[in-house]
Amino acid sequence: MPGTAVLSDWLFTSAVGVYMLTALLSAIENVLGPRPRRTGVAVAVFGAEPHLGSVLRGIATGRIPWANMYEYLSAVGLVAIGAWLYGQRWRAAVFVLLPVSLLLLLAVNLLYIEVAALRS
């Protein structure tokens, strides 16, 4: 499983970076017009894919992806991004992506633990 854990960490880190880029593009959109908005949404979709891969690290070990707080906050962040993309509230991008990115940074810096199966 070490290869899966490293891949999950890289996917998670890239998703956070992509969400921060999307928040920046969405902030620019409020000033310049609709072009960066479409780019920001496309980048957010691109960021949700590696984020989904990082959430699946718990499933790879045979347990639910919210078995610890790190994975729980990652799953909550993915649900928030998915709801924002599904609801198509593009103007609220900064107000969704910035808190989710900060939540994910908090999770990775304070709550991260190594991948391990649940003990019974």
Name the poorly predicted regions: none
**What is the domain total for the residues?**
1
Q: How many strand elements? A: 0
Structural class computed from helices and strand pairing: mainly alpha
Radius of gyration: 15 Å
- Tell me the fraction of residues in β-strands, as a range: under 5%
Q: How many strands, which pairing sense, and closed or not: the largest β-sheet?
A: none
Based on Cα principal axes, name the global outline: elongated
Provide a count of the helices: 5
Mean of the pLDDT scores? 78
Structural write-up:
The structure is a single chain. This protein is an all-alpha fold. It has one domain. Helix content is 78%, strand content 0%. The protein is built from five helices and no strands.
Summarize the structure.
By secondary structure, the protein is mainly alpha-helical.
List keywords for this structure.
mainly alpha, elongated, 120 residues, 0% strand, 78% helix
Task: Produce the secondary structure layout.
Elements (H helix, E strand, L loop, with lengths): L1 H31 L1 H22 L1 H4 L8 H19 L5 H18 L10
Helix pairs in contact: 1-2, 1-5, 2-4, 4-5
